[in-house]
Amino acid sequence: MTMETVRRRGLVLLGCGKMGSAMLAGWLKGGLPPTSVSVIDPKPSDWLRARGVALNAGLPVAPAVVLVAVKPQMMAEALPQLAAMGGGETLFVSVAAGTTIATYESVLGTAAPIVRAMPNTPAAIGRGITAIVGNARAGEADLALAETLLGAVGQVVRLGDESQMDAVTAVSGSGPAYVFHLIETLAAAGEAEGLSADLALQLARATVAGAGALAEAASETPAELRVNVTSPGGTTAAALSVLMDESRGFPALLKEAVHRAAERGRELGR
User: pLDDT tens digits for 82-137?
Assistant: First the structure.
């Protein structure tokens, strides 16, 4: 299946909140005609209404793709209305956190090709990263199409097994919140050292954003970049002696944080 098939047979977007809107904006920017898109959303935004897509209207009988972007707590109500499309002609792609492939198969049937995906919030500016995994019926063409669709909002990686999804959620799905908290706490620490609140926040935000961009663009590993900044006996070394402490620094804190997030993901998926 190709994007030309999507243009011809149509795409259904179930839910158009922040993530759905980001993806829709990427598809339209990439040349997908608004007339090829049908959106089901109980509370459509003014932005969505102005996009020219079919909104809460009659759906195609056998669309090329259904992308599920509703919140997990709305899944039980939203998904059954698509059950008739589960005969195998339509690819289902889900970006709903915590909803397993087995849950979709219980409603849509095992004939439906299903791709489960975990994006993250930088998708809103086209800088996200999404991990995907398919069920037994999702072939290479299905995975490639899912990559194309999700690539509209950033990078896409494939997983070997659905069991990895909870770890992905804990690292990249929840990860932006960890970085935002780092900015908060770094700014607060700067303020405690005598900077104004506005200046401390500006410095912290730009530093984290710039360091992240450098880490992504550089050929060196993050460890090598860290060493490059750290002069023996200098200010950075003094700070890192705290942050890299195995018992109370980043290594222990982040390992525990990611583990708790992954465990919570496993609980929600049961």
Answer: 888 988 999 999 998 888 999 999 999 999 999 999 999 999 898 999 999 999 99
Residue 264 CB burial class (10 angstroms; 0-12, 13-18, ≥19): middle
Token readout for 235 is: 């200010």
CA atoms within 13 A on the CB side of 202: 5
Name the pairing type of β-strands 114-118 and 11-14: unpaired
Picking from 100, 36, 29, 46, the residue whose alpha carbon sits closest to that of residue 68 is: 100
pTM: 0.89
Q: Domain residue spans in the chain?
A: 3-165, 175-269
233: left (phi over 0), alpha (psi -120 to 50) or beta: left
**Tell me, what's the pLDDT at 266?**
84
Domain 3-165 has CATH 3.40.50.720: yes
Separation of alpha carbons 65 and 150, rounded Å = 12
Residue 92's alpha-carbon distances to 16, 114, 135, in angstroms, are: 16, 5, 10
Closest by Cα among 265, 100, 264, 127 to 209: 127
CA distances to 112, 181, 214 from 222, rounded to whole Å, are 41, 20, 9
User: Which architecture characterizes domain 175-269 according to CATH?
Assistant: Orthogonal Bundle (1.10)
Residues 6+ apart with CB under 8 A from 157: 129, 130, 131, 132
